């Protein structure tokens, strides 16, 4: 044993039996208090924190599960080409409005209807990438497909002229 422990042991043995019981009881209370403060309480608080976090996560999962059908419905209605609003709009209006919003601007030279569900479009000096994005938008949002296309290059790089036949599905 170390000299410090020998000294403490000698002092303990020098105490009266009643004092020894009092010191032993105090030591037991001190050990129990240290166990509670250093081990039990941090574990209990951590468990409580994890339990409350789990409850918050479960609540969020329930809210998301409840909102999932609404999100699917909104996605389906916004992206569906066969919605009533898309079917009721004239092809000329759809082509004109989407062409302007796609940045084709003055490049849309002529739009000629061919029946109720078909239109022919002449484009000049339009950017090829914008034209492709515009055609994708017409297909995905408005249910229109390209049934004929004649595309030629311009003098400026990336610019094209095109004659397109568009039909509603």
Topology, element by element:
Layout: H1 3-14, H2 17-79, H3 84-88, H4 91-101, E1 108-113, E2 118-127, H5 128-142, E3 144-153, E4 159-168
Antiparallel strand pairs: 1-2, 2-4, 3-4
Helix pairs in contact: 4-5
Overview of the molecule:
The protein is of the alpha+beta class. Helices cover 63% and strands 21% of the residues. It is built from 5 helices and 4 strands; from the N terminus they run H-H-H-H-E-E-H-E-E. It has helices spanning 3-14, 17-79, 84-88, 91-101, 128-142, and strands spanning 108-113, 118-127, 144-153, 159-168. Strand 3 (144-153) and strand 4 form a beta hairpin. Helix 4 (91-101) packs across helix 5 (128-142). The termini are far apart.
How would you summarize what this structure contains?
By secondary structure, this protein is of the alpha+beta class. Helices cover 63% and strands 21% of the residues. It is built from five helices and four strands.
Low-confidence stretches: 80-86
Helix percent band: 55-70%
- Which class do the helix and strand fractions yield? alpha+beta
Estimated radius of gyration: 40 Å
Summarize the helix and strand pattern as letters: HHHHEEHEE
Query: Biggest sheet, in brief?
Result: 4 strands, antiparallel
* Mean pLDDT value: 86
Q: Which shape, going by the Cα principal axes?
A: rod-shaped
Give the count of helical stretches: 5
Percentage beta strand: 15-25%
Termini separation (Å)? 94 Å
Read across the widest sheet, the strand sequence of neighbours is 1-2-4-3
The count of DSSP E runs of length 2 or more, i.e. the number of strands, is 4
